[in-house]
Structures are given as C-alpha cells and as structure tokens.
Design goal:
By secondary structure, the protein is mainly α. The chain has two domains: about 35 residues; about 120 residues, no CATH class. Helix content is about 60%, strand content about 0%. Helix 3 packs parallel to helix 5. The protein is globular and about 45 Å long. Keywords: Membrane, Transmembrane, Transmembrane helix.
C-alpha cells in the first residue's frame, strides 16, 4: 500500500510539474489561432452604397469588421488595398449570382421567390470540387489570399455559368 501511495504521489508531482507547461502551451496556441492580426479576411465593400454614406439595406454599418472599417476609411489614401478588397467582394457577388441563378433555374423556381432559395448543397459541392478554394486559405499574406479568392471565385462563376443546366 505504501508503494502505491509513493507511485501515486510521484505521478501526481510529475503531472503537476507538466501541467503549467501544458497550460501555457495551450494558451499560446489558443491566442495564436484567435489572433486578430494574423487571420485572413474579406470585406463586403460591394454592399456599401456608392456615395459611401450608407450600407445596402437591410445592412447597417456594424456589418463590417473593425479591420474592414479601417480599410474603408483609408480608401482614398490607400486605394490599392481598398481596390483588392472591393474586387474580391465583386467576385464573390458574381459567384453568388451565378450559383443562385443556376439553382433557381434547375429547380424551376424563380430566383428568391417568396424569399426562398433553391439551395442545392450537393450541386454546390460538385462545383466547389472543381475549384479548390482551400488553396487560398493556405496563402501567407492578405494580398495573395485576396487575389487567389478573386481568381477562384471568378473561375467558379464561369464553370457554373457554362454548366449544362444553364
């Protein structure tokens, strides 16, 4: 019995010595994953009204993240960055219009009739497999990430627009 208690205490002390290290490693990993500075992101600048004073209804200014608002506010002084985000947003809109029109046509329903969408997840997965968007998320900086997303979404829209149901 005494031997069991010593082993238990020894194992417990090992665990207690390792616990702070494991806790620190977990915290560092958690903070790195959630770090706002390293995360790749997009901005829905196509939803901002042309005069820049409002947002497309029913959205409000709160729909843009803090980072996107900062980029939008600098659109006249850092036009290149703003244009990259705007171009990606437009490419997403092209893709979205293509897939929603495709699904509506295939289902025989009108586009957004009665605020309903003819969503076809299986068909979307078929198209997604043809254009690997995951490659974009492996990019190491915002510029290459946005360019990749823009190119792949336009390619995806083209594939959808030229598919057999269109």
């Amino acid at each position: 019995m005494k031997f069991f208690n010593l082993n238990f205490i020894y194992l417990l002390s090992l665990r207690m010595n390792i616990f702070p290290v494991v806790l620190i490693l977990f915290a560092v990993r958690f903070l790195a994953v959630l770090s706002d500075e390293t995360r790749l992101f997009t901005c829905d600048f196509d939803l901002v009204t042309p005069d820049g004073k409002g947002y497309t209804s029913p959205l409000s200014p709160q729909f843009l993240s803090r980072k996107c608002v900062a980029i939008y506010d600098k659109r006249f002084t850092d036009r290149t960055t703003y244009d990259m985000y705007l171009e990606e947003a437009r490419a997403f809109k092209e893709y979205l219009m293509a897939i929603e029109s495709y699904e509506a046509r295939k289902s025989g329903k009108e586009l957004c009739a009665n605020k309903e969408y003819a969503l076809d997840i299986w068909e979307r997965q078929f198209f997604y497999k043809q254009v690997d968007l995951c490659d974009c998320y492996k990019k190491n900086n915002q510029e290459t990430f946005l360019k990749c997303l823009t190119d792949k979404r336009r390619e995806l829209a083209n594939i959808i627009n030229t598919s057999e149901y269109y």
